[in-house]
Amino acid sequence: MKTVLVTGASSGFGNRVAEKLLDEGYSVYAAARRVEKMADIEAKGAHILRMDVTDNGSVEARVAQVIKEQGRIDVLFNNAGYGSIGPIECVPLEEIKRQYEVNVFGMARLIKAVLPHMRQERSGLIINTASMVGRFSIAVMGWYASTKYAIEGMSDALRMEVKPFGISVVVIEPGVVKTEFDDVAFAALDKLEEPEDYKALVAGFRKFFQKGYEKAPGSESTADAVVRAIKAKRPKTRYATTTDARVLPKLRRWLPDRLFDSMILREFK
Ligand SMILES: NC(=O)c1ccc[n+]([C@@H]2O[C@H](COP(=O)([O-])OP(=O)(O)OC[C@H]3O[C@@H](n4cnc5c(N)ncnc54)[C@H](OP(=O)(O)O)[C@@H]3O)[C@@H](O)[C@H]2O)c1
């Protein structure tokens, strides 16, 4: 059975994907910082890895461990990430950098660590979690969205580069999904000290975001899409995993910029 390395496996999509793969008999290496939150999947047979994706040494050592123990990594589900939200001017530069360290450079570290092995094997699958906000951006989510745009752009290039080696690249694009994502994002928003000029925008966004997550679906359809991609002979290049993620990017493409802007800002009112 295939060996799959899942990052961000301590909650949300990563945890659910790990669980589903274990149920189907895959050999699963589950990575995150909070190893205590992976006791549920450890009990089902997952190999638990303490990994901070911002730390080169941590990523390289854990990937080497999987290869040493299994002789292979067939699939990387490159999924660890978080959203630190706030207006562009208000998010501290250090926080912007931290978000890139996790969402973009963390993904880069994993890709660089697994590719020499996958190239040698002439097979492999890399699944990168982006977002519907990697296809369009909205106020107060700009820096987070920019990390997801980066993932989309990088993944398209990678797909072309590694095709000759028998390696596939897939992008997962969820919409609003109830995981721990919104708790982390709200915690970041709570810490923000925005100038008076931005108060109404942030308050409007907060209501809009809260409402969205109150009625959001759970991680099931996204986890199912990841498992489908893993099982497919020829996986799709992109999986938009929720209804909003299928509809909103299309709407964004059809509508002129300013019309889309006012539609979103009206939602904040
Ligand atoms: N939920 C949504 O609405 C939504 C929509 C679109 C895209 N996404 C994306 O989906 C991915 C998974 O998010 P989720 O919704 O499942 O959120 P989640 O429940 O908060 O899970 C995030 C995971 O990322 C891990 N992580 C964060 N920082 C890390 C670091 N420095 N090193 C290692 N692991 C780290 C966390 O583990 P530890 O804290 O234990 O390390 C956790 O397991 C993210 O890339 C997110 O941007 C989510």
Descriptive overview:
With 269 residues, the chain is an alpha/beta fold. The protein has ten helices and seven strands. It has helices at residues 12-23, 39-43, 56-70, 93-121, 142-162, 181-191, 199-214, 220-231, 243-254, 257-268, and strands spanning 3-7, 27-32, 47-50, 75-78, 124-129, 167-173, 238-240. The N and C termini lie far apart (52 Å).
Question: What keyword list fits this structure?
Answer:
single chain; 269 residues; alpha/beta; Rossmann fold; seven-stranded parallel beta sheet; 10 helices; 7 strands; 54% helix; binds NADP nicotinamide-adenine-dinucleotide phosphate
Give a quick precis of the structure.
By secondary structure, the chain is α/β, with parallel strands linked by helices.
Q: At the fourth CATH level, what is the homologous superfamily?
A: NAD(P)-binding Rossmann-like Domain
Q: Report the uncertain regions.
A: none
| Fraction of helical residues | 40-55%
The succession of helices and strands, N to C, reads EHEHEHEHEHEHHHEHH
Q: What structural class do helix, strand and pairing data support?
A: alpha/beta
Strand order of the largest sheet: 3-2-1-4-5-6-7
Q: What number of domains?
A: 1
* Main sheet: strands, sense, barrel: 7 strands, parallel
Ligand inventory reads: NADP nicotinamide-adenine-dinucleotide phosphate
Query: What's the CATH topology name?
Result: Rossmann fold
Q: How many β-strand stretches?
A: 7
Separation, N- and C-terminal Cα atoms: 52 Å
What's the architecture in CATH terms? Answer: 3-Layer(aba) Sandwich
Q: Characterize the overall form.
A: globular
Strand portion, in percent? 5-15%
- Would you state the CATH class? Alpha Beta
Rg, Å, rounded? 19 Å
Mean pLDDT: 97
In DSSP terms (H or I, runs of 4 or more residues), the helix count works out at 10
